[in-house]
Specification:
19% of the residues lie in helices and 47% in strands. The protein is an alpha+beta fold. The model has no long low-confidence stretch (mean pLDDT 95).
């Protein structure tokens, strides 16, 4: 999948609630819910209650990060 296609698919969801699942090493995962804050050419940001986290589109392509719209 192309990063430009992913970016275009995220644009309509800006400001919506999302669930992020980060697949780590050795079957460890982290899940949190936040708001899709900003969408940039190389990354997108998600705002949680305490912080703002950024992720690259390549992380979505490699399935290191999964995003679900709530």
């Amino acid at each position: 999948m192309n990063p430009l296609v992913i970016r275009e698919s995220l644009l309509p969801h800006k400001g919506e609630r999302v669930q992020i699942k980060i697949n780590g090493m050795r079957n460890k995962t982290e899940k949190f819910i936040g708001i899709l804050k900003d969408i940039y050419p190389q990354i997108f940001t998600v705002e949680t209650q305490s912080t703002i986290r950024s992720f690259s589109y390549s992380e979505l392509i490699s399935k290191d990060v999964e995003i679900t719209f709530i």
